[in-house]
Amino acid sequence: MTVKGRISSVNLFYVLAQTMIGVGLLSLPHQTHHTAGSDGWISILITGFFIQLIVLIIWLLCRKFPNLTLFDFSKVIVGKTLGTVVNFLYIIYLLTIICYIFIVYTDTLKRWILPETPGWILLLILFVLLIYGSICTIKNVISLFSFLFLFIPLLFLITFFVYHDPSIDVRYLFPIGHSGGWNILKGTKDTFVSFIGYETLLIYFAFMKRSKSISALKGAFFAILFVTTFLMYIVMISTMMLSPEEMKITREPVLYILSAVEIRLLSRLDLIFLSFWCMVVFATIISYSFSASMGISKLIRIKHKFAVMLAGTFVFIVSIIFYYMEVTLLEKWLKHFSLIFGVIIPILLLFITIIFKREAASTDEEKEN
Amino acid sequence: MRKRKTKLVLLFFILPLLAGCWDERLLKNSRTVYLSGFDLNENGDYQITSIIRDMNISESSRGEISISNKLVTGNGSSIKEASVTIDRSVAGNYDPAKGRALILGIDVAKGDIYNVLDAVYRDPRVDLNAKIVVTDNSANEIITHLSENEVEKGGYLYELIHSSEINSEIQDITLRSIRTYLFDEGKDFMLPYLSKDEDNKVKINGVALFHDQSFTGQFLTPAESTLLLLFMETKSQQALLTEQLDKEANVSVSYNVKSVSRKLKLEKKDKVHADILLELDVEIVDYPPDHLNKQSRISFLERQLSKILTEKADALFKKLAENQSDILGLGREMIAFHPSIWEEIKGENYYEQILVNPTVKVNVRSSGITL
Q: Is B57 at the interface with chain A, CB within 8 A?
């Protein structure tokens, strides 16, 4: 089952950047500060480098199976039964991420701007958007993402107003490396979650025009470079604005520093930042649900449309349960899950492919036909 | 036609998803607070005093709007409790943190001021650009006075603070930035010091020095505070200073500081020595004896000013040392660039270990449109 539709490496850049920048953005400086102190940005840099390596591994894996997504080549690599299990687990993983995004999004919005709106309304909005955005082909997804990408530079622009504040202090970034190498490395554990999204490459590489050539990798490479720089910038600016002890008690440092910026026309920049951020989160959700529903449609052989609805309903119900039971397990799970599904399984798959010399048999057959 | 109908029905179902349906807050229900003040009363309870602005839209005379102000007070063991007490006594929703300015009574300021501010930071709707001032008396008294005598009330106070900021007489501190200072171990701050003078006029009488999270009891005059701001390199649009050169002949010179550059050197001997060299480029704005066309006259003036300012700076830093108020942020400087020194002296009273040796050098750069 090869996939149709071809995307260029520029398109891949948009898709990947959109998928990776998500809900973690707002609380990232707070989380990196937890272990790495004022050196959080170094942790981000290291994580970014690490992710580049993993993307290289994923690319090496995917180039063996041109035009096949993870859900197809997993069966080729580890056999039909085990492949189905892997596919199933990946679908669950992707859906868990969506649930997590749903919950963080609702929680943030409720605390910052919509305290009286019931949580389920916000979840319902996301649900409708998920269905609406994911019932389409890869072409539509890409054109949507290319447009939504506009909002990321806007987020970037908004933060420029912060420099207006007289209390900004570069000295908070110094001394560089003060927290010690071990703590900085430990900090990468916390920052890793903000980078998840690159696993979708296991699916998107299949849509590439020439996935075997190095140009396919270029899009992914620049996307990760962009995301790393963006996140590093956000962490640095938050560290400069808030004193270390203050950072410990500020859950969303980015919004907090923006809420005090006043320009002539606007007095609450955080609200504007938050609304742009919502667009970015929608893109992330659509990307994940698109990949997950593709897996579902392949797993139980239904149309993409129904798979999306199934995925959406599942996510909606689970996130409502988790939201109202106030379960915070998801975040903890996700930290481990992202390591397993984002690092360990791709590496294992690559090893098996190399050792047992697995080839994409199905594509060859097609060529012969 | 049928398709259109289904679309209309769909639209109808989308309506409840609009956030405005849930989170509306009508202007008529909320009470606009213009100014709030916090005090401690005898029982150790907090007292809040606020001026609330009322808008009455009269139905009889073509919706004419009349504005009236109301003074309210409330007590409670925490700030939130006190504001709930006020909420009970006024119609509509009362929120003390909406004002453009907050006044801290002297008793509150001498304690940990974060106790008062904590509730403010938990509310996303607070205007974090509000200004904070300290009074030499109770906040209640100042606010009562303002509500009786000033038309603009809170707006008046805000403008007062703002113009002092432009003249580099007070540090630019808002509700947001004060939190950064409160949680910073290596930095202190100063707040505008509000008092009523003999003519019963409320004015800013310098700045109140803080150490950690509480008022030290010491305050600086506006001229001293301007000099300190110059040492911090945070000069605002203008910084006007006047020095008396000759007491008997009553000769004085006024000048506006155009630009500042500071060199800071930290060295660990028996104590930590901080040598600060401050170079000021000034513009003479008032100097009746004149003769500024002669280079010798200018150099004389430069020497004189440098000498006077160095003496003043010495006195200023002695004052800061007495109160252990690290406004310059030398502690932060050490954490950032001299961590080894900081490790030796860190602690609550680290400023005792620092000896500041200021030197000021003045360069006259211009003298207006005449020589």
A: no
